Amino acid sequence: MAKLILATFAVVFMALAATSLAGDPDMLQDVCVADYKSLKGPLRLNGFPCKRIENVTANDFFFDGLMKAGNTGNSVGSVVTAASVESLPGLNTMGVSMARIDYAPWGLNPPHTHPRATEIIFVVEGSLDVGFVTTANKLFTRTVCKGEVFVFPRGLVHFQKNNGNTPAFAIAALNSQLPGTQSIAAALFGAAPPLPSDTLARAFQVDGGMVEFIKSKFVPPKY
Ligand code: MN
Question: Which of 150, 149, 132, 152 is nearest to 140 (CA)?
Fold first, then answer.
């Protein structure tokens, strides 16, 4: 009997722990509009400090940056425009954000993950071949057409490809104020300082020359 009670407590505790780790933390007040100026000060915390309420305006909750198509003239033929806490200060502590994804004809949003959010996309124009891979390396993939919705579970590697010869775009909703994006190829082959080529050669079971060739396609960030 004691064992059963203990087991029940263990299950309840695990369920509570899972809930509290399920995404962005709950808010503790109505609004906490991000005070970007705080980044220049000494205070550092998880998210942004709140602006004083008397300085908050309706514009803090407004963003018009998803209105226009982004420039898809790059090597993969897609661009993501985010409406996250970094562009929409009213999102601070709200646990949600949006993005607009534009695709050139046949353009690809290459395999990437969002460490802090599940993503649900609505195809506004065109049709996409999309997919995600589970931690057991099972691929779930299908075509998603205009007006349809698809969901990418939090943290899993996923991609979308425009499967038509006209531009496409989708709107994404994500359950984090700052989902984070880690692009797989860029993380491995375009990091600064670079990952050792012998490490990548072994991981991908190719020779070092091949690794150097792929690295040459990426411009590492400046730190
Ligand atoms: Mn994504």
Answer: 132
User: pTM surpassing 0.85?
Assistant: yes
In the reported structure, the alpha carbon of residue 202 is separated from the centroid of ligand 1 by a whole-number distance in angstroms of 28
Q: Where are the domains of the chain?
A: 1-179, 190-223
Q: What is the distance in A from the centroid of ligand 1 to the CA of 176?
A: 12
CA distance 199 to 183: 18
Residue pointed to by tokens 């994006």: 181
Q: Is the separation of the CB atoms in 139 and 83 below 8 Å?
A: no
Q: Express each pLDDT in 102-159 by its tens digit.
A: 999 999 999 999 999 999 999 999 999 999 999 999 999 999 999 999 999 999 999 9
Q: Which CATH class is domain 1-179?
A: mainly beta
CA of 192 to the centre of ligand 1 (A): 23
Distance 94 CA to ligand 1 centre (A): 19
Interval 207-219: pLDDT, tens: 999 999 999 999 9
Q: Which residues pair with 139 in a beta bridge?
A: 133
